[in-house]
Amino acid sequence: MFKEIAVFAACMGEICMHTLLSPERPLKWTIIANLHAGGFIIPARWKRHHAHLKSSEAKARRNPRRVNAGPSSQAMVLGKGAGEQWGLIPTNGPGHAGKITEALIAGIHGETPGLAGDVPLHLIITAGGDGTSREVLMAVYTAPPELRSRFVVLRLPMGTGNDGADAWDLDKALDLLIDPSKIEMARALRLTTATGKGPFYAFNILSIGLDAFVTHMTNKMKRFLPGDSYKLWVDMAALFYDRLYRVGPMELRAFDEAGNTLNMLQERILLLAVGVSGRRTYGSHKWILPDDRNVCAVKQMALFRKLRLKGLFTTGGHSDKPESTLFTAHRVTFQGMYPILAQMDGEAVLLQPEDFPGCIERTEAAIPVLKGHA
Question: Does the pLDDT at position 223 exceed 60?
Answer without folding.
Answer: no
